[in-house]
Design brief:
This protein is of the alpha+beta class. The protein has three helices and eight strands, in the order E-E-E-E-E-H-E-E-E-H-H. The protein has a single domain, classed as Nucleoside Triphosphate Pyrophosphohydrolase (Alpha-Beta Complex). The strands form two sheets. A four-stranded mixed β-sheet has the order 5-1-7-6, sandwiched between helices. Strands 2, 3, 4 and 8 form a four-stranded antiparallel β-sheet that branches. The longest helix has 13 residues.
Length: about 140
């Protein structure tokens, strides 16, 4: 793999931390099979919370309540483009997400999630949020 080109613009990406009964919602990418927190790329000038709500509607057929930004993780795409991954607490209510653009969706505890072949930035983010106790935001209304 060649060295990343650091002169390119940073890709702004959002992801949802959706926590239910001690488990995270994870999505498997259709293309490379890696697992990730659901979300996607922000359009130029698009607010990050609006981006995440749009991506969840498009990819999972859900209307999400997007809460506070929990953390930002820097990393690279599989192609080497720099990215900034913004994780938001999200709530789906009683809706059941559908894998419209993914191979599969799963609900896993943190240990199970970390056993999957995760996107590197998502892995780092999940570890960081878990260590800080920020995955379950139910005490904060999320």
């Amino acid at each position: 793999m060649s060295a990343p080109n650091l002169n390119r613009d940073v890709l702004e990406v959002t992801c949802a931390v959706i926590w239910r009964q001690g488990k995270l919602l994870l999505a498997q990418r259709a293309g490379n099979g890696l697992w990730e927190l659901p979300g996607g790329k922000a359009e130029p000038g698009e607010p990050l919370s609006a981006c995440l709500a749009r991506e969840l509607a498009e990819e999972l057929a859900v209307t999400a309540q997007v809460g506070p930004c929990l953390a930002t993780q820097e990393g690279f795409t599989p192609e080497g483009r720099p990215l900034r991954l913004h994780a938001f607490a999200c709530r789906l209510g009683r809706q059941r997400p559908l894998a419209l653009e993914h191979r599969a969706l799963v609900w896993h505890g943190v240990d199970q999630a970390l056993e999957l072949e995760l996107c590197p930035a998502d892995r780092s983010l999940i570890k960081r949020l878990n260590a800080a106790g920020d995955l379950d935001n139910s005490d904060n209304g999320w």
